[in-house]
Amino acid sequence: MSGTEGAAARATATVPVPVPAHGRAAGVTVRVPAKVNVQLAVGGARPDGFHDLANVFLAVSLFDEVTATPAAELKITCEGPDADQVPLDRTNLAARAAELLAARHGLSPDVHLHIKKDIPVAGGMAGGSADGAGALLACDRLWGLDSPRADLLDICAELGSDVPFSLVGGAALGVGRGERLTELPVSGTFHWVFAVADGGLSTPAVYGAFDRLNDGVDVPEPVASPALLEALRTGDTAALAATLMNDLQPAAVFLRPSLTDVLEAGTKAGALAALVSGSGPTTAFLVQDAASADAVAAALIASGTCRTARAATSPAPGAAVLA
Ligand code: C5P
Questions:
Q1: Which of 46, 50, 213 to mutate to test the pocket of ligand 1 (most atoms within 8 A of CB)?
Q2: For the chain, what is the radius of gyration of the CA atoms?
Q3: How far apart are the first and last CA of the chain?
Q4: Whose CA is nearest to atom 21 of ligand 1?
């Protein structure tokens, strides 16, 4: 079957999504958090090119909002300071989420997805994954599907390694390529500052640099740190600061050496610990309280080593429909 015939077969197998009885474009808005990896332990490259991880995710209070409304065809729009860097075609995880969900139910993905973007783009804070999870939940509710959580998590895992966590939020350990989650107990409030860099870093490029830097090294199996899990459970900021770790940091710094200056500026300004967030180039600074967060953010901005700095707290809830 040719590609065109395949597309035609798929088109006849789908039906239009239900139109609301009152005929108005009723929308569903979902709010989704960013994440920081408080531990990102990376194993050697697998035969499929991915890496096994012990990935401790913590959701933070920077949010994107995705609004789904009925439309004649799939359309993505985006607003926010970095909106010009967001792809509006079908490579956007929000579009792929709508397509995957619709395909599962024999629907055609006729929906307008509007993304209100506040999470740094290509920054290692799972902004794209957040939009995928948000679009999935918004379309699920808009189309009246009310899918079981397990089905939504399945689709999330198909969309990307970080997408299931965007749905779940809170704190969780991700194993496999990071998509197999176990929720973690977390108490108290952790205060953070995030230094946003100019321009993103490609996640595959950072994993590629990790492989090159570890060429010939027997990379150990990734395991979660018991001391770090205990720090989350007890809400102990000092203990968390002592145990933060990111195996991708050397690779991100190798590709973007100026990150060293940002990390130093935040540490000098009084952060308890500093690390690259996920695959970067956003850097994360754990601080004692809200007042320190404001001081460290101001010092980072004044240092000129980053584009801007944002204070946030964790844990934050996962994807949620707004009333
Ligand atoms: O799963 P996701 O699409 O977010 O992954 C993007 C890329 O990051 C993958 O194509 C791969 O290069 C890299 N990756 C990896 N190991 C993981 C997760 C991601 O090598 N566990």
A1: 50
A2: 20
A3: 45
A4: 177
Q: How far apart, in Å, are the Cα atoms of 249 and each of 49, 53, 217?
A: 19, 14, 17
Please tell me the predicted confidence (pLDDT) of residue 3.
40
Closest CA to 38 of 300, 202, 273: 273
Measured in Å, residue 279 CA sits from the centre of ligand 1 at 10
Residues 6+ apart with CB under 8 A from 65: 29, 30, 31, 32, 115, 116, 134, 322
Q: Sort strands 75-79 and 111-116 into parallel, antiparallel or unpaired.
A: parallel
**Which residue has the least CA distance to atom 12 on ligand 1?**
204
pLDDT tens sequence across 249-292: 999 999 999 999 999 999 999 999 999 999 999 999 999 999 99
| Whether this model's pTM surpasses 0.70 | yes
Pairing status of strand 28-45 against strand 245-246: parallel
Distance 194 CA to ligand 1 centre (A): 22
Q: Report the alpha-carbon distance of residue 177 to residue 158 in Å, rounded.
A: 11
Classify residue 220 as exposed, middle or buried by CB count within 10 Å of its CB (0-12, 13-18, 19+): exposed
| Strand-pair category, 111-116 with 51-70 | antiparallel
Question: Does residue 321 contact residue 138 with C-beta atoms inside 8 Å?
Answer: yes
CA torsion, ordered 40, 45, 48, 53, to nearest 10 deg: -20
Q: Kindly report the protein residue whose alpha carbon is nearest to atom 20 of ligand 1.
A: 50
Q: Return the active site residues.
A: 35, 162
Residue in 224, 199, 219 with CA at minimum distance from that of residue 280 = 199
What is the 3-state composition of the chain as percent helix, strand, coil, each rounded to the nearest 5? Answer: 35, 30, 35
Higher-pLDDT residue of 92 and 22 is: 92
Q: Say which residues have a Cβ less than 8 Å from residue 170's Cβ, sequence separation at least 6.
A: 59, 183, 184, 186, 315, 316, 317, 318
How many angstroms is it from 299 CA to the middle of ligand 1? Answer: 33
Residue (of 167, 194, 193) closest to 181 by Cα position: 167
